[in-house]
Specification:
Layout (H helix, E strand, L loop, with lengths): L2 E8 L5 H9 L30 E8 L6 E5 L1 E5 L5 E6 L2 E6 L6 E5 L1 E5 L5 E6 L2 E6 L6 E5 L14 E6 L5 E6 L9 E6 L6 E2 L10 E6 L5 E6 L3 E6 L7 E4 L1
Antiparallel strand pairs: 1-2, 2-3, 4-5, 5-6, 6-7, 8-9, 9-10, 10-11, 12-13, 13-14, 14-15, 16-17, 17-18, 18-19
Length: about 250
């Protein structure tokens, strides 16, 4: 049976029925234009506290939905090309485990791991930018620093992350997260050694937040999420505007 890694959000125990019931107890102000209204409107009550934040967990499920098998806390799981290992991040560290959850190793400090097509390298983001290391954590090298853009508010610039290898291993697509103010996240691509970064998403007109790049199987296009067109694709040449696949 083919297994797929998935990420789930496990919330601490909280009854949504109870939450809805508590909403029913809210008292809304009565319009002053109502002739039967009291002299002073009744102020609204504070809404109930949100449910406690949960932990993000990794599971394996069959392609038919059968399973699931819990592997542990973590996010952004990525299969090794041989299908035997999963890289992920948790607690600010890059981990690799076997598909049965055994043999866990901490390889580096960082997030957003992505296996190279040959299975011998892992690209990831860290405090310095995007780095590449061997499958065992050896030879860690920062290939591209965060200062990719010159159109962001420098003090708020959130840098780069979410690397994704092209099928032939020659290119890496990635996301610049914007500056948290006026400049939204955008999609870029660079050579696998970090050289010649270039933006794939439009540089003029309306600017949407765009993230999470992935590759078409033939390596000619990059698929990503966009706040405007939804799930979209753009040629790796970047010579035509993105095409919406699903709104």
């Amino acid at each position: 049976m083919r297994l797929l890694p998935v990420v789930g959000l496990v919330l601490a125990a909280c009854s949504w029925q109870a939450l809805v019931a508590s909403c029913a107890d809210w008292t809304l102000p009565i319009s002053l234009e109502d002739p039967d209204a009291p002299e002073d409107p009744i102020p609204p009550q504070d809404p109930p506290d949100p449910p406690p934040s949960g932990t993000i967990e990794i599971y394996l499920v069959g392609a038919d939905g059968a399973g699931p098998q819990h592997l542990g806390a973590g996010a952004r799981p990525d299969w090794s090309p041989d299908g035997q290992r999963i890289a992920f991040h948790t607690g600010g560290k890059i981990h690799v485990i076997a598909v049965d959850g055994s043999g866990g190793n901490v390889l580096a400090t960082g997030k957003d791991p992505a296996w190279s097509p040959d299975g011998h390298r892992i690209a990831f983001a860290n405090d310095d930018g995007i780095a590449v290391m061997g499958e065992d954590g050896s030879g860690l090298t920062v290939i591209r620093t965060h200062d990719v853009r010159n159109d962001t508010w420098a003090e708020g610039d959130m840098g780069i992350g979410k690397p994704a290898w092209s099928p032939d291993g020659g290119l890496i697509a990635f996301e610049h997260l914007g500056d948290g103010d006026m400049v939204p996240a955008q999609i870029f691509v660079m050579n696998a050694d970090g050289s010649e970064p270039r933006r794939l998403t439009p540089t003029s007109g309306v600017q949407y937040a765009e993230s999470d790049p992935a590759w078409s199987p033939d390596g000619t296009s990059v698929v990503f999420w966009s706040y405007g067109p939804g799930i979209a694709t753009v040629p790796v040449t970047g010579d035509i505007p993105p095409t919406s696949l699903y709104l």
